Amino acid sequence: MGGGHGPGTIVEVAYALAWDLEARAIWRPLTARAARERDGVGLPYVVVYRLPGREVPLEVRLVSWREHYVGLWVYDDRGRRTDELDLRLLDDPGRLLSRRTRTWRYTGPDVPEFDDECPRSTTELFPDGRGSITRKPEGELGRTLITVPDAATRRWQARPGFDDWPVGAVSRLGLQGPVTLRAAPPAPDAAETPDAAREAPATCWHPPRPAQPGPIDALFRPGTRVTDGYHPEMTVVEPRRMGTLCVPSGLLAVSGPDDRAGKGPAMTIPVPPGAYALEEGQVHFGYDCEWRETWVTRTDTTAVRLLISETPALSWEMCLGPDDDTRLLVENEIFGFDTDAATGCFADAGAWVPLQELFERHLLRGEPGVGEDITDSMYFLRTQDEASGGELVAFATTGDGTYPVWVGRSADGEVAKLVVPVGGMPTVLQDDSSAPDAGRDTS
């Protein structure tokens, strides 16, 4: 769609508690005054811009200052989203980081929204100057081009006031300016003081939420039925204990053990000095093996766990590294330790350098007497620093990438357990936490 709206463009503005992406409609309309009040105290609301007489929106803005977030969607005249801008309010209250920008360019009027074959690009930016641009050209299914943003890329912008936001769709869609904003016809149920007790439908847009731990404790609760999406039903069996880890320094490290750059462990967490039990969460299942032409049963490890205490964990949180900021995470994203060797480890951070060196000497150079192999387990190697008594125990993951570390805290806020899912988080089908013997391991 282009110009043709006279000397300027009239845009109608409406406010609401939420925006239904599926219905392309506002949910629980607000008056402008109610939206302004929510803006002032950081509560979420949405602003919807339309051209007069146009059924589909021109642009939708979602604001939630309490979550440091502003999102923008631009729509074409067929109701397809063409542009997304994800802004984050970080340490400086007057500036917004353009955290992520995505665009979709539809090659025809009947191409579905987000069609796999339509050209698209994603720009990721971070406050420390890092960033990437990923492009998928037209007609090249499966091919992507990744580059680094140049110095001219706009990373920051000033935070506008409630009435000062520009309508970005005007320039993106080639509409003629200047823009004149006017209130949309009032909705009959627009509220001055909305009742926010009702949750918005699942189809409504919301600020990006980091990945959540899910039922971590269920992976160690015998009798729980889960599925990994490939095997329809798997049953959690008794956790398997595989010795202990000595942490005399009182500072635990969780990391990939390959530290050739000398940066130290990915993340650390204080714990009382001591020796802690190492466990594997396991599932038992069966399947029809085609190449053996028979029914096969097996037991696999889904997660590794370090028990700091036997106290149940009543809450779980994502463990963070020194430079991790959850305000930067996009939907369902994680922080964790990186590995390109399908390996993680628990270790005494106070002896990290000698322990990591012993790991490399044993694994890469094959030196005798510097490490101990562990057989028949996801834990496969132990090293010990003779000077301090601190230990490193390495475990296998099911692939390369980034693995989250979940910290379980007791009712008094103390660290009780650390868990690393080593092959993705299974879906719980039935949790037997109410069974008579469930108290053996309530995590």
Architecture blueprint of SSEs:
Elements: E1 9-20, E2 25-30, H1 32-41, E3 45-50, E4 59-64, E5 69-75, E6 81-89, E7 95-104, E8 120-125, E9 131-136, E10 145-147, E11 156-158, H2 168-172, E12 179-183, E13 225-227, E14 234-236, E15 240-247, E16 251-255, E17 267-270, E18 274-289, E19 294-307, E20 315-318, E21 337-339, E22 343-348, H3 352-363, E23 372-373, E24 379-384, E25 391-396, E26 401-403, E27 406-409, E28 415-421, E29 427-430
Parallel strand pairs: 1-12
Antiparallel strand pairs: 1-2, 1-3, 3-4, 4-5, 5-6, 6-7, 7-8, 7-11, 8-9, 9-10, 13-14, 13-29, 14-18, 15-18, 16-17, 16-22, 18-19, 19-28, 20-27, 21-26, 22-25, 23-24, 24-25, 27-28
The proportion of residues in beta strands is 35-45%
**How would the global form be characterised?**
elongated
> What's the story with the biggest beta sheet?
12 strands, mixed
Number of helices: 3
Residues in helix, %: under 10%
How far is it from the N-terminal to the C-terminal residue, by CA?
Answer: 57 Å
Number of E strands: 29
Number of domains as seen in the coordinates: 2
The radius of gyration over CA amounts to: 26 Å
Mean pLDDT level: 89
| Class inferred from helices and paired strands | mainly beta
Q: Identify low-pLDDT runs.
A: 1-6, 434-443
In short:
The chain is mostly beta strands. It has helices at residues 32-41, 168-172, 352-363; strands spanning 9-20, 25-30, 45-50, 59-64, 69-75, 81-89, 95-104, 120-125, 131-136, 145-147, 156-158, 179-183, 225-227, 234-236, 240-247, 251-255, 267-270, 274-289, 294-307, 315-318, 337-339, 343-348, 372-373, 379-384, 391-396, 401-403, 406-409, 415-421, 427-430. The strands form 4 sheets. Strands 1, 2, 3, 4, 5, 6, 7, 8, 9, 10, 11 and 12 form a 12-stranded mixed β-sheet that branches.
